[in-house]
Amino acid sequence: MNQLRDNLKNLGLSPNHIFQQVKDAISEDLAGGQDLTSVATITQSQVSTADFTTRASGVVSGLHVVAAVLEYCGVNHYEVLVDEGAKVSAGKVLITAQGNTQKILLAERTALNFLSHLSGISTLTNQWVSEISGTKCQIRDTRKTTPGLRMLEKFAVRMGGGVNHRLSLSQAALIKDNHIMAAGSISDAFNAIKKMYPDKSIEIEVDSIDQLKEAITLKPDLILLDNMSTNQCSEAVSITNGLVKLEASGGIAITNAKAYAVTGVDYLAIGSLTHSAPALDIGLDFRKGK
């Protein structure tokens, strides 16, 4: 357990948070009872060896979350065979586990749920990153994450080669259209935040070149170009002339990502990385005779 804690910390993950998520997931699966199928069909003394194996190629992440699931379920003999963020082909064994058969089966679905979901995010992120290779632009995630899984989903984005936007509402300020409407203007919203939180990063969302010009005068840390065309993004890059970092969001698909990236913006904010990534097909297979 101590080694697992160190591994999670080295990956930028909170061990206590991961262990609590694993506990909650297993508790949800058992719902106060026991695994009826396994208890009825498998003796308490049976021991097996099982492999977590990819059924499709992709970028894997969440391997050490699987380790946490295994350990929580009482399966302490396992080996993680690939690195987090590794590109793998179909048929690759990612983790081998040996132990009580009932305990391995208890861990199976929860472990695969985490692993397949996170690897799906990493795989999709890597596809976006590859699409804009050769530009200075970076792929960033958003707060469009699954409630309770933000830390892990943003970790999966990093493993896919993307970078993280703010992790929480309290980490940095993002002035959006509704804030502008409620405060009265971009300047009013910006100045209010600057007065109350002078040391916090501030990003301003704009949806027109006129708003961009107002935002630039305030010298924010970042400006978000909302639903702007590639031509508008190019114009924005020219106007800011490197004074403020720019992020494009809205109306961006993987098919036009490169066109946005070459405009010179610093980031593409892609919500689909976390809210629409398909799970990577991964399975758990017992070895015959073991």
From TrEMBL:
Any Gene Ontology CC annotation: cytoplasm
Q: Which domain of life is it from?
A: Bacteria
Set out the biological process GO terms recorded for this chain's protein.
Answer: NAD+ biosynthetic process; quinolinate catabolic process
The EC number(s) attached to this protein equal 2.4.2.19
GO MF terms listed in the record are: nicotinate-nucleotide diphosphorylase (carboxylating) activity
Annotated Quinolinate phosphoribosyl transferase C-terminal domain residues:
121-285
> What is the enzyme's main class?
transferase
What name appears for this protein in its UniProt entry? Nicotinate-nucleotide pyrophosphorylase [carboxylating]
Q: Give the organism, scientific name.
A: Candidatus Nanopelagicus abundans
